[in-house]
Amino acid sequence: MSTTAPPAKPAQAAPKAGQTDKRFKILDITMKRNHYRQDALIEVLHKAQESFGFLELDVLEHVARGLKLPLSRVYGVATFYHLFSLKPSGKHSCIVCTGTACYVKGSGKIVEAIAEDLGISVGGTTPDGQISLATARCIGACGIAPAVVFDGEVKGKLDAPTVLARLATLKDQQEA
Amino acid sequence: MDLTELKALAVAEKAKFKPLRVHCCTSTGCQAAQSLEVKNNLAQAIKDKGLGDRAEVVGVGCMGFCGRGPLVQFAHDDQLFETVTPDQAEAIVDVLAGGEADLIKGDPEHPFFSRQFHIVRKNSGNINPDRIEDYIAVGGYQSLYKALFEMSPAEVVAEITASGLRGRGGGGFPTGIKWATVAKMPEGQKYVICNGDEGDPGAFMDRSVLESDPHLVLEGMAIAAYAVGANHGYIYVRAEYPLAIQRLETAIKQAKRYGILGSQIFDSPFDFKIDIRIGAGAFVCGEETALIHSIEGKRGNPRPRPPYPAQDGLWHCPTLINNVETYGNITAIVEKGAAWFSGIGTEKSKGTKIFALTGKIRNNGLIEVPMGITLREIVEEMGGGVPDGTIKAVQTGGPSGGCIPAHLLDTPVDYDSLTKVGSMMGSGGMVVMDTGTSMVEVAQFYMDFCQEESCGKCVPCRAGTVQLHAMLTRLLKKQATLADLETMEQLCYMVKEMSLCGLGMTAPNPVLSTLQYFRSEYEELLQPMPTMPDNHALTV
Predict the structure, then answer these.
(1) What phi and psi, each to the nearest 5 degrees, are found at residue B14?
(2) Which domains does chain B have, with CATH numbers?
């Protein structure tokens, strides 16, 4: 199976600072598992984002080198898809679903309330790097609209005060 | 494994089911309401009360009534409990043992359930999606066996064509014709793709099918691959559906272990493997050519058709792309025959359709109904109507569809009738809006969605949606004139007719349909005529 993989030298061309970084190793393993196939780019970027939190330029360069793709192509893909972020995100994420069902049930007001409370806009992170606010185009939890995803955990049937309270506890946990 | 072994396994597994089975929903919606804790507590309570030898709790897929989750149901007598909390577990087990308890009981005879007809969702809420054995116990993979050993590929295609099944992703293209086109292509590498990139906001049918019955989709894909001569399949799932991805991964692994996927399936010469591809958040990837580019690891830009993917698809090989729900219908058609399937539904729309009934409605959730049922039956009988207020419109088809006003609620739900009233079937989102909803704001909401999701490849869509959104915003700020409204309407038709792919071609639909039925709301927002001095000033 893996015998036909291209003559890959994962650590080729010395990826400068990252070489000692364990996360680059994870990335190399992911690429190897995909046989350095160029069509695995999105899979690899998913893994990269998972381990680095966001896609820094040197990560993109590393992936481009590994998969033998032009950096422009890697950058193009990374910027095309909404889930890939080129900016660091906060420690906690708060994703408000703004699909139709949630919209009809007032998710817009929730977003406004959070934005006002935290003083950030959608896509932003609080200055202390604690909470990132994002919106999603329907997470498919329409039955329990409006829904918000806190750190990967879906919560439904929410209103603005409940969400703000929840965010406050997230912050407190951090300080404690 | 052969058919006798498969059937023996089914019987053996079925025999392992304990007489008292408690089904507890473990889909995304119910999990968000602590259904996993409920399930654990139920298991503990069964153990504590010494019922372990005749009762068991089973984590099952979606039961449909998502608005009242978590749901717990007894398999033996259909008793249904709604909005269960973890501390009610003991009380439920008391009821199981024959006692009484003060719990919120659902009514399984309610029209929400009784008006449904399950083909794709037949196993949802009845089996544990994490166990292939559960699927085999209810007759799973016997259709694949039947196709492989009792039918030729051409017979399978003919059966699907005769059934009248049409694509459930929205377009409604006859599935049989698609299959026949791919099957007719010269032999060589072909691919089968399952489109699980359910991007329509307000729709979650595919998520539910994948979470509740992943093997049904795998089996449908395998039958399709056999029919068209493919040996490799991809399931493209949105990254927003982590639970669906996890269950699919498990399902594929289990099927391989049983020799039902992989090489020489059921010891026949047929090989088929399935890989999962995870999306990265792009609505346009639901368009088939864009989806193919995304699987190839590229930006999800669509390309002009023809050539259609059936001739020139993934890596330029003939490729069959169908929606999750379409594949979900295949096993039933192979098992029960085309005649049975075409007996359900209307003349031109056969079978059933799953809808996600959401918005301002009493009973939120998923329903599978025969085609031809009217919107009124769905919204008023099954959905229980709008909680407070009156219904104003029903939105179907997501950002590609339109708003159907209350006076057209008697429209039957089938592909052609919905198109006739300016909406479309779409993938199955059905969002109910009450009189408090501003239709212009709804149009703006969808246009905002489309302008953001436009991939930017063709100008009419890229620039047109932005302009339309700006015009709607101006309108809502009461800064637009009648001339602006006319320009907007013209631009709608321009975008509709000149865009490259389905996203742009349908993006103006929400605006056009609200203009058609709720024009007065737009006109009220037009810049007011120069105002007269107020009455007091005049009388003095």
Answers:
(1) -65, -35
(2) 18-108 (3.40.30.10), 132-342 (3.40.50.11540), 352-434 (3.10.20.600), 439-524 (1.20.1440.230)
